[in-house]
Specification:
The structure holds two protein chains of two kinds. Chain A is mainly alpha-helical. Chain A contains 15 helices and five strands. In chain A, the strands form two sheets. A three-stranded antiparallel beta sheet of chain A has the order 1-2-5. A two-stranded antiparallel sheet of chain A has the order 3-4. The N and C termini of chain A lie close together (11 Å). Chain B has a domain of 175 residues: P-loop containing nucleotide triphosphate hydrolases (Rossmann fold, 3-Layer(aba) Sandwich), CATH 3.40.50.300. Classes of the chains: A mainly alpha, B alpha/beta. Chain A: One of its GO terms (cellular component) is plasma membrane.
């Protein structure tokens, strides 16, 4: 095999999920009536913003060789905190700030800080107790959702303050600002992972934690930061969720965790840690969203989505194994 | 155990200012005494071969010096000052480099990333440290070329490299970063004859810069080829500490297996 073919093949393998996305879009555009429209594509991006943001945090922790099952509940808690404070009906307190726009940074800060605190506590427990992140964050997944039920009393908050709602309504180049926030998050965190020592260290910790410790990298500190970031980003996802639904219900976001896992795995992140990139995860998120949209347009019952997502995750894992064998042959 | 020649510390003739002094360093795992009290010293520019049977406590000792394992008792002096590395980061900051027996590479990233693991070259972009990949790649290229190591592409992930190439990365890493003291725990396990010879040359070259070297090995021939002094550990104590040119492989083997005890002593 000459170097050029080899290079092309490597490139295709590295970006396989993007090729899959393009393939799926072409197929749907050809066979699903009304699929090929700018509005539909904008919708795909828009619908994936909450899931996308949440997947970033999950991917960070998985790439570092751990796991965070709590992101969904954390997003719900942040959403509920913002909902209770800034919604005017239901259980909302309808707090008003002057000037109005001040509610935007304040609500955002509250959502991110709530998430960050839970994330940091997850990280601290994982590092200190040296227990499996799976168990620690499973506990958080349960108690944080419980906390949402407790503080809401099972009721919901509606009518989010218009100043915050503005982000879901205002559009730029055909996309609502919430979608741009998700895209900006992907760009920023992709750069952090690929270009900064912190990102590089997370990848290496996921690959061989002992080696990084011996090399003098402060593994524990990096891991706690990764968990904290995952929580904070989940909080941001919760904020977007409140905007999207203009309020918060006790069961907001249920099931998002599994979609986030699907997106991360489809995006090429290995659950063993150390492998995967955030642009790939974004492609995975868009792929899921593209398929959902196709199912909607074809008028299939929404229940099909779950079956298809499950199969897609299986396909992604098989594909990953297949990629490994090809790579080994390349080496 | 206690009372093992504490008076000997730093007393070797011609070694008025030892780089590292171990004074009765012990390590227990519960009731098991891995190290019962180790005392010896390493001078600047000196190559010490640390020999001993499997389970004699060599790797435990290396981990204590390199940070990551705290001794149960005893003390260490590094450059004349009390020294205890609570983490490898602290040891590294003090100038102690370590090459471990089981390779300490991250196979999921490329050669350059491994070479600079934990001390990446960065430049500031808007106040944020950003990896300077080009600068790092140049350094690695130069370091590997001067050591005669051939690796097809510095951007391939280490998982695609052979055992020898991987070990070469680690060896070149310590040669490049230097420091003051280098610990090598069976560094040539995966190397061929020619690469081993080059590795031994590297060690002499590093020592000639005034860096202290401790090399753990099983292969008597290597120890005699490269070391100035030979320290034998048996059952958690120093069973022999002798200049290379004052002993023979047979004598050392006897010390390792215990047929002669400390009689060969640290007379140097």
């Amino acid at each position: 095999m000459n170097p050029r073919t080899r290079q092309i093949l490597e490139f295709v393998l590295d970006n396989l999920v993007w090729f899959m996305l393009v393939f799926v879009l072409v197929v749907f555009s050809t066979f699903v009536p009304n699929y090929f429209q700018l509005g539909i594509f904008a919708n795909i991006i828009e619908a994936s913003s909450v899931l996308g943001v949440m997947s970033i945090g999950l991917a960070l922790v998985i790439i570092a060789g751990h796991m965070d099952l709590s992101v969904e509940s954390v997003a719900a808690l942040s959403a509920m905190a913002v909902g209770i404070l800034f919604c005017s009906s239901g259980i909302g307190l309808g707090i008003q700030l002057n000037p109005q726009w001040l509610m935007v940074p304040v609500s955002l800060l509250i959502a991110v800080v709530v998430g960050g605190i839970i994330g940091a506590s997850n990280g601290y427990l994982v590092v200190r107790l040296k227990m499996s992140a799976f168990i620690i964050t499973l506990a958080s997944y349960i108690w944080v959702r419980g906390l949402v039920l407790v503080i809401s009393g099972g009721r919901s908050a509606q009518d989010l303050a218009p100043a915050i709602r503005w982000f879901g309504i205002q559009r730029l180049l055909g996309l609502p600002l919430t979608a741009w926030i998700a895209i900006a998050c992907f760009v920023v965190f992709s750069l952090i992972m690929a270009r900064t020592p912190f990102g590089r260290h997370l990848v290496m910790i996921g690959g061989n934690e002992t080696a990084t410790f011996r090399a003098g990298i402060r593994v524990n500190r990096n891991l706690v930061i990764a968990f904290m970031l995952a929580g904070a980003i989940a909080g941001l996802a919760g904020w977007l969720l409140t905007i999207r639904t203009s309020g918060a219900t006790a069961n907001l976001g249920v099931g998002l965790l599994f979609n986030a896992f699907a997106a991360v795995v489809i995006g090429g992140v290995s659950l063993k840690g150390g492998v995967g990139t955030l642009p790939g995860v974004y492609a995975g998120v868009l792929l899921l969203s593209a398929i959902n949209t196709a199912i909607n347009l074809m008028g299939l019952p929404a229940n099909f989505t779950q079956v298809i997502h499950g199969l897609l995750v299986l396909a992604a894992v098989l594909l990953d194994a297949f990629k490994q064998t090809i790579r080994q042959r390349l080496a | 155990m206690s009372g093992v020649q504490p008076g000997m510390i730093g007393a070797q003739p011609g070694m008025s200012d030892p780089l590292l002094v171990l004074d009765n360093v012990a390590k227990n795992y519960g009731a098991i005494e891995a190290l019962k009290g180790i005392s010896f010293s390493i001078g600047r520019g000196e190559v010490v071969a640390l020999l001993g049977d499997n389970g004699a406590g060599k790797s435990t000792l290396v981990k204590i010096i390199a940070g990551g394992l705290e001794p149960t008792s005893g003390r260490m002096l590094f450059e004349g000052r009390e020294f205890l590395a609570r983490s490898p980061a602290e040891a590294k900051a003090a100038g102690i480099e370590t090459v471990y027996q089981d390779l300490s590479l991250c196979t999921n990233v490329d050669v350059v990333a491994n070479f600079f693991m934990g001390r990446e070259i960065t430049r500031k972009v808007l106040g944020v440290p950003v990896l300077d990949e080009r600068a790092m790649e140049q350094v690695v290229q130069k370091a590997l070329a001067s050591a005669g190591t051939r690796i097809p592409s510095l951007r391939t992930n280490v998982e695609h490299l052979s055992g020898g190439q991987r070990q070469a990365i680690e060896l070149n890493r310590f040669v490049h970063f230097g420091g003051k003291l280098v610990l090598l725990d069976e560094p040539f396990a995966a190397l061929g004859v020619e690469q081993t010879r080059r590795g031994l040359d590297m060690i002499r070259q590093v020592a000639s810069q005034g860096i202290g070297v401790v090399i753990i090995t099983h292969i008597m021939q290597q120890a005699f080829q490269v070391a100035d002094r030979i320290v034998v550990i048996r059952q958690g104590v120093v069973a022999g500490d002798i200049a290379r040119n004052k002993t023979s492989p047979d004598a050392v083997i006897n010390m390792i297996t215990g047929e002669t005890l400390a009689g060969a002593g640290p007379a140097g």
